[in-house]
Amino acid sequence: MHAITIERPGGPEALRWTEVPDPEPAAGEVLIEVAAAGVNRADALQRQGNYPPPKDAPPYLGLEVSGRIKAIGDGVHGWHLGQEVCALLGGGGYAELVNVPAGQVLPVPRNVGLVDAAGLPEVAATVFSNVVDVARLKPGETLLVHGGGSGIGTFAVQLGKALGAEVVATARAAKRERLLELGADRVIDYQAADFAKEVRADVVLDIMGGAYLKQNVEVLKTNGRLVVIGMQGGRRGELDLGQLLAKRALVAGTTLRARPASEKAAIVRGVREEVWPLLDEGMIRPVIDRRFPMAEAAAAHRVLETNEHFGKLILERT
After folding, report:
1. CA distance 260 to 87
2. Long-range own/partner contacts, residues 42-47 (CB < 8 A, 24 or more apart)
3. pLDDT tens by residue, 255-290
4. Same domain for 210 and 288?
């Protein structure tokens, strides 16, 4: 088969469409013939040498795919050959074939095409596990989503609205109208305004890390919850513990990729039970900015690093 390999850590030019050995499913796994793969910020970090894959994952990039089941390992039940699926991966999605633990496989939602479904597993699992499992967002509460125009952001805006929350997003001014159309109640231009002076929130979903820590705590209402899922603004920040205690607030940090398979499977079960019906009903939809041939992954990474896209970038097998 062919896969995108990294010639050496560096920029997008380091990516190569290369022939590599075919995988074979082990017990508990299914082999997926890949139709498309989602592009994520973590892929760029891995390409740069800053985010190595878990030791049990393929060395190739790619945290989510869609495709058809080509082979089934021992002990796997509930799936059949040729079935259209999408899946959450530890790595290896930028390829023609990939093995996936059966617990991380999802059916393609009823109202979603096979290629576009590749942009769902990673964002759905990330947003659900943090906004629902960790932060316990309730109807009537206010959710602040940083990076509202990203793949994570566009999904979080829709899920927050579907759960009955007021949703505020930060984003560039150019993305404001599309976020309002997607369901956001308010959009704050982070380049022109201090979001901490503009909103108070029960839950904050943050991709920035250190650079936003002080302001995020200021934003929280009493009993508020801040969930940090990224460090685009650095890994260190100053935390006012007095303010945190006075607000009886929670600060949590989570990652998805390094979790054991049992935890990922539990998250995927929750996504299938609670989020997939919203996709089937059309209350949430994948937001795809554009699609690239998989062999041209470098072009997709260049777009990713401009931060000018809205929603997901997809690599499609052609």
Report:
1. 15
2. 42/257, 43/94, 43/301, 43/304, 44/301, 44/304, 44/305, 46/6, 46/91, 47/6, 47/9, 47/10, 47/11, 47/12, 47/14, 47/15, 47/301
3. 999 899 999 999 999 999 999 999 999 999 999 999
4. no
- Do 194 and 265 have their domain in common? no
Domain count within the chain: 2
| CB neighbourhood size of 232 (10 A) | 17
Residues 132 and 233 in one domain: yes
Last residue of a domain, one of 253, 268, 298: 253
Rounded CA separation 272/278 (Å) = 10
Domain residues for the domain of 286 are 2-120+257-316
Give the pLDDT band (50/70/90) at residue 233: confident
User: How confident is residue 250, by pLDDT bands cut at 50, 70 and 90?
Assistant: very high
Q: Percentage helix, strand, coil, to 5, in the chain?
A: 35, 30, 40
CATH number, domain containing residue 146: 3.40.50.720
Percent of the chain with pLDDT over 90: 90
Please indicate, yes or no, whether residues 286 and 261 belong to a single structural domain of this protein: yes
Mean pLDDT of the chain: 96
As a whole number of angstroms, the distance between CA 178 and CA 283 comes to 16
> What pTM did the predictor assign?
0.95
Q: How sure is the predictor about 191, in pLDDT bands with cuts at 50, 70 and 90?
A: confident
Tokens of 212: 């936003």
pLDDT at 232: 83
Q: Is the pLDDT of residue 235 over 90?
A: no
Residue 95 pairs with which residues in a beta bridge?
3
| Closest to 145 measured CA to CA, from 159, 130, 129, 156 | 156
CATH of the domain at 14: 3.90.180.10
Same structural domain for residues 172 and 233?
Answer: yes
Please check whether residues 203 and 310 belong to one and the same domain. Answer: no
